[in-house]
Amino acid sequence: MPVKPSEKRLKISSKQLKALKKRIKKKKLRDDDYELLQGLTETVECLNQALAEKETSIGRLCKYLLGAPTETAKNLLKDGAKKQQEKKPKKRKGHGRKPAADYTGAARVAIQHPVLIAGNLCPGCEKGKVYELALPSVFVHITGDAPLKATVFERSRLRCNLCGEIYTPELPVDIGDKKHDESAAAMLGLLKYGCGLPLHRLEKLQSNLGHPLPASTQWDILNASAMILAPVHDGLINFAAQGELIHNDDTTMKVLSFLKEPDPQSTRKGIFTSGIVSKWQDHQIALFMTGNRHAGENLTEVLKHRATGLAPPIQMCDAASRNASKNFETILVNCLTHARRNFAELVDRFPDDCAYVIEQLGKVYHHDAIVKEQGLSDDYRLLYHQQHSGPVMADLKSWCSQQIDEKIVEPNSGLGKAINYMLKRWDNLIGFLKIAGAPLDNNLCERALKHAILHRKNALFYKTQRGAQVGDLFMSLIHTCQLSGVNPLDYLTWLLKNAKELEKSPQKYMPWHHERSP
Predict the structure, then answer these.
(1) Spans in the chain with pLDDT lower than 50
(2) What is the DSSP string of 316-362?
(3) pLDDT computed for residue 452 by the predictor
(4) Which candidate, 494, 457, 488, places its Cα nearest to that of 473?
(5) Which uninterrupted H or E stretch holds 182?
(6) Could you say which DSSP state residue 307 is in?
(7) What's the pLDDT at 90?
(8) What is the pLDDT of residue 85?
(9) Which of 300, 195, 226 minimizes the C-alpha distance to 464?
(10) DSSP secondary structure letters along 199-210
């Protein structure tokens, strides 16, 4: 039940509070101190309840600063963490070093023994013969260099003393007449939109390393490259529209031109970056769209390219109404992590109740991990969840209904709201028990949106709508490469070097057509 503060307002000065602390320390309380302590106790309880409410951002901030840094059961539940540690065998702590196989972009240099070859007499014992081992001795050597490296070609010039003709040697064939190589444009896009490095910060870094590249020049390169890559981005949108499973969500963003000159045809002031991750066949496609449209409206724009006759796709998102498409039919499934988060935020106030919900949902995620580990198909995964997770979710629903129906929990309290959130959206939350291929949560899209959030944290805003379009294009291509296991730098360079061909047939230049990283 919510705590009702006393109608009598508590008034206490700093002097009175100090005097009370001294009397408590000496254990010499007066009769009127008990009324004062009761008022202070009620005040602390009311403040604690206010901070715990979902709508109070201060409560979330305090929990982030003082409570568990993540929402894992290990950090949220003390007793539950001990039980989990007892059940799970402890893994051997690694040394943190990267194996040589992880350096996929590194040059490989083979070094042969300067004297010995296989079959030679052993110089140690002078009796046996040496043979070559299957695995070489590996040493990784890392050097530092500028992200964008300039090379100055000084060509000698010869002039005829009679006619004045000047003869200058040609540049190397692979250089051509371009000042900025395609790989430079690809690196700029990866640093800016893949790693969140602002252009002015990169300008300072390049200047310090003796390879100056002004921020204005960087933007000109990115803008020109985006025009070349536009057909491939359009192709990604077309393939994403055919997906069998589509995740979507959005996050806030700033575009200065929208703030200075709002769209006269729209009353909406908010600006968002929508993230869409579509699973089509064996490929995952990431799209980013920045503007004053919500995720559901951007999903509508994507689904306009969907081929007629295809079955409605499965749509995974949170329960916000703005995520749904109003013009196209989808099989809506809601995120289980969002429902769990409501209880994770209240675990300090309702430890036993929240622990029960978190542990029940933990069993479901454990079953899903087993399915992924065994590599079961979508149909077998559905049967496995129905057999193992179905009873767990049925017990959880029965418990939630009991709390509300028998008035064990106040409906307007934080716990009551968290329970009602689940009950109202129950059918959409258990989509993984009814639909083959339906995921448990929207974490895939939320991880994708971290690219936009990283840009927002470092660059703070886009200056113009064109800047937002360039950012969306590069983020879409880079994250799709990451989802496909393709090196983004190699892929973007490959596209820019084949600009004429990709304009004619962009569908042949999708990330999954590029050679995957080993």
Answers:
(1) 1-7, 54-56, 81-82, 85, 517-518
(2) EE-S-GGGS-SSS--EEEE-HHHHHHHHHTTTTTSHHHHHHHHHHHH
(3) 94
(4) 488
(5) helix 182-189
(6) P
(7) 57
(8) 47
(9) 226
(10) HHHHHHHHHHTT
CA pair distance 175, 177, nearest whole angstrom: 6
Residue 397: what are its φ and ψ, rounded to 5°? -65, -40
pLDDT of residue 91: 59
What's the pTM?
0.80
Provide the angle, in degrees to the nearest 10, between the axes of the packed helices 351-374 and 414-424. Answer: 40
Q: How many CB atoms lie within 10 A of CB 46?
A: 15
Gap between the Cα atoms of 8 and 261, Å rounded: 51
For the record, the structure tokens of 60 come out as: 């979330």
Strand partners for 286: 277
Burial degree of 360 (CB within 10 A; 0-12, 13-18, 19+): middle
φ/ψ of 501, rounded to 5, equals -70, -40
| Tokens found for residue 385 | 């969840």
Strands (E), 45-165: 158-159
Amino acid in position 343:
F
DSSP run (H or E) holding 31: helix 31-52
Tokens of 386: 């129905």
Query: Do the bridges between strand 245-252 and strand 272-280 make them parallel or antiparallel, or are there none, so unpaired?
Result: antiparallel
**CA separation for the pair 189, 8 (Å, rounded):** 63
Give the whole-angstrom CA distance, residue 181 versus residue 493.
9
What HEC string does 230-292 produce? HHHHHHHHHHHHCCCEEEEEEEECCEHHHHHCCCCCCCCCCCEEEEEEEEECCEEEEEEEEEC
Closest-CA residue to 53 (of 2, 104, 4, 93): 2
User: pLDDT tens for residues 198-256?
Assistant: 999 999 999 999 999 999 999 999 999 999 999 999 999 999 999 999 999 999 999 99
Q: What is the pLDDT of residue 10?
A: 64
Phi-psi region of 511 (alpha: psi -120 to 50; beta: other; left: phi over 0): alpha
User: Tokens standing for 432?
Assistant: 């993984």
Closest CA to 298 of 54, 476, 498: 476
Give the three-state DSSP class for 367: helix
Q: Give the total residue count for the chain.
A: 518
Q: What pLDDT was estimated at residue 58? A: 59
How many C-beta atoms surround the C-beta of residue 349 within 10 A?
17
Q: Report the distance separating Cα 189 and Cα 197, nearest Å.
A: 10
> What are the helix and strand counts (H, E) for the chain?
19, 7
Res 517: pLDDT: 43
